[in-house]
Every structure is written in structure tokens, then in C-alpha cells.
Amino acid sequence: MDISFNQSLPKTGSLRAGRERFAFLKRDHFRRNLTWFLMALPALVWIFVFKYLTLFGVWIAFTNYKVRRGVFGSEFVGLDNFRFLFATDTALRATFNTIGLNLLFIAGGTIAALFLAWLLYEIYASKLTKYYQTMLLLPRFISWVVVGYFVYALLATDNGLINMFLRSIGLPPIQWYNSPQYWSGILLLVSLWSGMGISSLIYLSGMLAIDVQLFESARIDGANKWQQFKYVVFPMILPLVVINLLLSTAYILNADFGLFFQVTRNQPLLYPTTDVLDTYIYRSLIVTQNVSMAAAAQFYQSIVGFVLVIVFNWIVRRIERADEPLSLF
Amino acid sequence: MDTDRLMNWIGRFSIHLVVLILGLCCLIPLLLILSASFTDEIALTRSGYSLIPSQFSTSAYEMIFRSPQAIVRAYAVSIFTTVVGTIIAVFIMSMLGYALSRPTFVLRKPLSLFVFFTMLFNGGLVPYYILMTQYLRVQDTIFALMLPYFVVVYYVLILRTYFAALPGELIDAARVDGAGEFRIFLTIALPLAKPALATIALFTALNYWNDWTTALYFIRDPQLYPLQYLLYIIQSNAQAMQLQSGVGVNLGEVPTQTTRMAMAVLATGPAALFFLFFQRYLVRGVTLGAFK
Fold first, then answer.
1. Which end of chain A has fewer beta carbons closer than 10 Å to its terminal beta carbon, N or C?
2. Nearest to A57 among B25, B102, B130 (CB)
3. Domains of chain B in sequence order
4. B112-153: pLDDT as tens digits
5. What is the CATH number of domain A88-319?
6. CA A281, CA A321: separation in Å to the nearest integer?
7. What's the rounded Cα separation, in Å, for the pair A24 and A20?
């Protein structure tokens, strides 16, 4: 409701004068809308080009793409690209790695974030908590390149901190960058390092919203800290946890390119456990320049991803409380 | 009762201890880089990475500052894209957010749908790469580094919510005074939305500063390497140092490991300071959901 519209209506004057005034206001209304539209336009153009035009890119998955011929000039080959894609072990391996590692990150990340949030909740009154939070949040704002640097400082075969330590206690050093079997664990630790602070903040705000009287009565009933967590905190923030789990599961086919590319130093020897769809697509597209293969993998990452987001958002919508909407739409 | 209080105190103390250790775990990797950058190259090779330099030396920094062309150039590129990119991005995002927050805007509903529907799908790298290189043809230009972050739909959502909550009386009063819509936006809405703008600007600036993927996809010209990408190039190919910049001529003379670590320190420093100064805006951004 536009209040100014009413306020600036003529208070006195003949009917004709009033109509003229009204016509002026209508023109004003139009001008105002035009201004708003023009203000929105730059961003709208960007969204149209980068979000909607790129949707035509899915067509590439069905063509033998040649740069010279362009997206729609290239020869249509039906499902051939997909047949080739799934004939190679690499694409399947990348898919399994993406899903497996994401499940690991989701499970580990949720448990760690809940635990940390609870610890912070218990000492929330302390002045020190602010400083702890600063420390815990910092990693998310360090670029993956630099993360790759310090992981190297830790894991370098000859002089990395961990191998120096292993040597000092008489154990043989490990060739980390040649040993794919360790990397699910290493990547989990790095992703926890990076994201734990931020996700704990979300659960912490959920815990702070819990009525303290619940804790009082639990304490009077003789509940210890663990029982308080189990019977008060956990049930209260369970909806938040479930919703976060669902929303992250919707993105299970999307991996963080920086984590998998920089932290592993893009070591081919590690691909068996660290190659994910995003790194596979990058390599096919830019390194080996097999655009059609990349597009086929991209197609199912995008399409399956879209379906998952729609389905999981629908589920979240069914279970969320009306007063705090959490789904995307 | 006294034992109770003691137990309570011990409990509290141990929680503080655990959180402090976790917090230190967040910092220690960065200290490892800092320490390595101040270590003598030969000592680093011999006695390895440690939290305290085994043999203190500033030769890595001296080496960088003796012929700093590459890093100065990369700094210039990163600062330019971060500053100009952030200004443009925040401006066009807040214009869109403001327009979509106006209750009497006749296109509000359809345009909101057009904008926010894009949050559900993602064409991915392949079409994006072809769009940038074959159609927009921005590869190897400074625009390639700025274009990708001009609009983040989630930030538009946050800005729209913020603008919608601004008191309507001020805007109406300005309108009665005869101010045009664009002037109202510039002189009233934007200043009132400063906290939200600061949060979005900060996240956008960090996106730009920490970005290396855009350069990985679209930049081949060493003159246009942003800082993080230069770091990546140096890491992925220690010889790139000689080829790209002329920092050191003879590999035997170059304290490669320590120089790389010193470069990492120089590249992370500004982002870390940024973070510390504007922490409260970042925390607000996190609670608003700006960081997904």
C-alpha cells in the first residue's frame, strides 16, 4: 500500500483540477515503476545471461561439440556421449566419490558442529567465547590455495611436520601424496577445519532460542550434562538438524572444487579416492578438452541435482514450522 | 555443596580448554606457513616445517622484494578486481534488491520469481565456460575476473529483505518533497541499509580476493594473474617463478619453499586483517545465511 499516493491527493479544488492532478499522479506512478525497472535491469540482464542462457548448454551433452560450429551447429549424436561416459570407469568413480565423500562430510560435519555448538552454548556467558568464535570462523575465509599450502607443509614427504614427527618417534614416514587410502580422512579433517565454525554458529543460535526453564527443570530432576543434551537440547534443535541434513543432501552431487583440487594438489595418484564430478568435469573440459564428455557429466550433475533440490525442498517445506521458513522457496 | 561448585568449575574449565584447543587448531596451520616463511631455506629442508622457525631468516621476503614485479602486478590485479568488482556488484545487487522490495512495483512478483527461481538450478561449469569464452569472449581480460560475481542471488534476497524492512515514512516523506525514485534510493535507502550493504560488500570482497578458479578457467596472460592464482601457479610449478616473473634467475639460488610460503603470507595477510576488522559483519552475514 503506497501511502504517499493518498497523502498527495488534492485536498481542495474543482473536480477537473482533481482529475488533472490524478493524471499527473498516474504518470508519476508509471515513471516510478519505470525507474525501478531500470534500476533492476543491470542485474536482471546478468541473471538472464549467466543463469538462463547457460541452460541451453545442456544441449551440448547431446552433440559432438566443435568450437568452430558452436552450440547449435554441432552434430547431434543423441545419447552417444552418455554411452561413452558410462563406459569409462572414471565417471562412475567420480560419481561414487562425490556421493561417498559428501555423505562423510555431511555426517562428520553435523556431529562436529552440534558438539561445538553445545560447548559454545555452555560457556556462552564468558567474554572469551567471542574470541573463540573469531578463531573458529577464520578458516572459512582462507582461500583454498593457501589451505593447499599448509596441508603441504603438514604432509610433505621429506620435511612435512607430520612425517618429521613420525620419524622422531621412530616410525617410517608416509608418502601422503602417493597414498590414496588416507585421503577420505584427510579431506574430512580439512573440510571440518574449514566449515565447522560456521555451521556451529547456526546450531548455536538454535540452542540460544531454547527456553532456559527447560534446563532448570531438567537439572532439578537430576539430569547430568549429557542427559540435558540428550533430552533437552537435541530434541529442541532436531528440526533444524533434519532440515540442514536434507538441504545438504540435495547438493550431494556438487563437490567443493577448491577443496578437491587444491588440497590434493591435483595429484593423479590420488584420483582413486579424491576425484569428484567437479574435478572430473574441469579436467575433461579444460585439460583434455573433451567437451562432449564434460557436458554429459555436467548434464547429469545438473539435472539430477535440480531434481534432488526440488524434492528435498518439498520435504523441508512439509516439515518446517511456519514461523521460521528454512526452505529455498 | 562446595564439591558441587568445584565440579562445576572443573566442567567449565574443561569446556574452555577443549574450545580453546579447537580454536588453536584453526590458527596453527596458518602459523605453520608464517613460521616457514621466516625460516632459512636449508634449515627448512633439513629439519622440516615447525611452528617456530628452526633458523630465523628473512631471506624469503628479501628475495620477493628484490624483484617484486610479479607479486606487485598480481596485487594490483587483485586489488583492482576486488575494489571495482565489489563496488559494481553491491551497486547493481542493491538496485535490484531495492526494486524488488517496493510494494507498489507492478513487476515485483514476476521479476522476483525470475530472479529467485535461479537458486534451484545450476548449469554448471561447461555452459558457463562456453558462454564466457565463445560468446562473451572475455577470456584474458580483466572483465573475466569481475563478471562472475556481479550478482549472487542469495545476496539479492538478503538485500531485498533488508530494504523491505526499512521504515516507509522516510521514503514517503522524500517522495512528498518531490525527490525522484533513484534519488530516494541513493540518498535515503542506501544510507539506511548500511549494515546490510557492509555485510554483502564484505562477502563479495572476500569472494573476489580469494578467487582463483576464474583465472584458472579464463586467464592465460601472466600480466592478469590475480594473487591467489599466482600462488597456485607457483605451487603447481616451482619453475613458473623463473618463467613468469624473474624472481631469482637460478633455481639453486631461489629459496623456493620459503619464498612460496612468504608469498602465501603476503596473499593471506590482507584477507585475514579484513576478517578481523569486520568480524561482526561477517557473523551477521553467517546468521543471515549469506555464506552457504
1. N
2. B130
3. 6-288 (1.10.3720.10)
4. 999 998 988 888 899 999 999 989 999 999 999 999 999 999
5. 1.10.3720.10
6. 39
7. 6
